[in-house]
Amino acid sequence: MKVLFATSEAYPFAVSGGLGDVAYALPKALRKKVVGCRVIMPLYTEQMPEELKASLQFITNITVPVSWRMQYCGIFQAKYDGVTYILLDNEFYFKRASLYGEFDDAERFAFFARAVLEAIPHIDFNPDVIHCNDWQTALVPPYYRLYYYNRPGYENIKTIMTIHNIQYQGRYSKQLLEDVFGIPNWAESLVEYDDDVNLLKGGIESADRVTTVSPTYANEIMDPWFSYSLDRILRERSYKLSGILNGIDVDLYNPETDKYLAANFSADKPENKAVCKADLQRSLGLPENPDVPIVAMVTRLASHKGLELVKFVFDELMAQNIQFVLLGSGEEEYEMFFHLKSLEYEGRFAFRCGFDPALAHKIYAGSDIFLMPSKQEPCGLSQMIALRYGCVPVVRQTGGLNDTILDAGEPEGVGYTFKTYNAHDMAGAMYRAIGCYANKKEWKKLTHRGMATDNSWVKSAGDYLKLYKEVTGKKK
């Protein structure tokens, strides 16, 4: 089985969010299952660390059709953690300050989708499956159906489209259909949706199978409340939709070996978690008190993360005997609110605006309760990381949060959950967690169960391998 994993970002070459982590960890896990898997992505010369640039090997250069234009594409190769990465170079499109959000993103990723397909004869790798991810690669399945399926060397390739977050769809005016996307008017139905060009819709329509990043989210996105209008096409194509839960990289997030921690610990030897807690309190200017639970959030400051719930009952939460730590950046409304609250509750609430990987690891290891009250959460990785570091999640029952966190009221529960998107329901779950923290014997059992939970990529990679076999008809 040979899989070409098409993505707009991947650690360590360029990362802006969870997709970059998945595009690193899943191919690595597939390789361990003896699946030939290569990652293909743009070469972002401004984002790539210098030491990685030095590792690039030039393969060749080709020209790529972008509607009526022919554009240069350099093909480079690099190896990282046993996985081969194919990086496609065009400085006009990808030598930018940002990965996304550029005025010409439509043309940039139309080029990338065509380049993925044009590169195949030149990379010594004939894929059985092209696994596409999010709207930036969603044109690969339509282009394959329109221009490549009957070319020599391209026969019988299957395409899989994974939706990591349905909110981002690549919606553009139909005026771009021929001039930018190079799709003839007679094929407009492949990508047209609600009188726009919708690239993600094109991927859903044209791919052989569609997946998303948790079973619950696969059901949710067929509901208008979650789908950002794509529920109609998803219900029509529900026969090819499934949800496969993401995992986490258990080597990167390992409290036994984590270099960022003041002391290492494990599920069987958890004593040094107290050392990590004291270190976190010192570094953030909080009183060193082992008996006060630290509540933590590491999140983008965006409304769909449930931050309006936190705002609504923030003072009620701080009336409890807790310390609160928040690391994140995003919408100005939330940055300002939490900055002001950090002044009001100085010595009890620490807010750090931005993202600091070292501090994030320290927060997971030093905190006791991890809050994720998301309005929508396709999968979520933070709750799984928190479990691994002995930090008890409090989550809303949505998306991957529902699939990974069983309430502590159940015999095998590992966290605290609430269902309704309501601030006081969230507060109620928080109060249950704070109350359990006072019972050291029960708290120890709860954290041990969480740390023993297997959220690695092993099972997820197995589920993807099963899907690849189903779609190709191959046994291995």
Give a written overview of the molecule.
With 476 residues, the chain is of the alpha/beta class. The protein has 2 domains: 2-247 and 458-472, Rossmann fold (3-Layer(aba) Sandwich), CATH 3.40.50; 273-454, Glycogen Phosphorylase B (Rossmann fold, 3-Layer(aba) Sandwich). The chain is 37% helix and 20% strand. The chain contains 20 helices and 18 strands. The chain has helices spanning 18-32, 50-53, 91-94, 105-119, 140-148, 176-179, 199-206, 215-220, 224-227, 231-236, 273-283, 307-312, 314-318, 332-344, 357-366, 382-388, 399-404, 423-437, 440-452, 457-472; strands at 2-6, 36-42, 57-66, 69-80, 83-89, 129-133, 158-163, 171-172, 192-193, 196-198, 209-212, 241-243, 294-298, 323-328, 349-353, 369-372, 392-396, 416-418. The strands form 3 sheets. A 9-stranded mixed beta sheet has the order 3-4-5-2-1-6-7-11-12, sandwiched between helices. It has a 6-stranded parallel beta sheet with strand order 15-14-13-16-17-18, with helices on both faces. The longest helix has 16 residues, at 457-472. The mean pLDDT is 96.
Condensed summary:
With 476 residues, the chain is α/β, with parallel strands linked by helices. It contains 20 helices and 18 strands.
Outline the fold blueprint:
Blueprint: E1 2-6, H1 18-32, E2 36-42, H2 50-53, E3 57-66, E4 69-80, E5 83-89, H3 91-94, H4 105-119, E6 129-133, H5 140-148, E7 158-163, E8 171-172, H6 176-179, E9 192-193, E10 196-198, H7 199-206, E11 209-212, H8 215-220, H9 224-227, H10 231-236, E12 241-243, H11 273-283, E13 294-298, H12 307-312, H13 314-318, E14 323-328, H14 332-344, E15 349-353, H15 357-366, E16 369-372, H16 382-388, E17 392-396, H17 399-404, E18 416-418, H18 423-437, H19 440-452, H20 457-472
Parallel strand pairs: 1-2, 1-6, 2-5, 6-7, 7-11, 11-12, 13-14, 13-16, 14-15, 16-17, 17-18
Antiparallel strand pairs: 3-4, 4-5, 8-10, 9-10
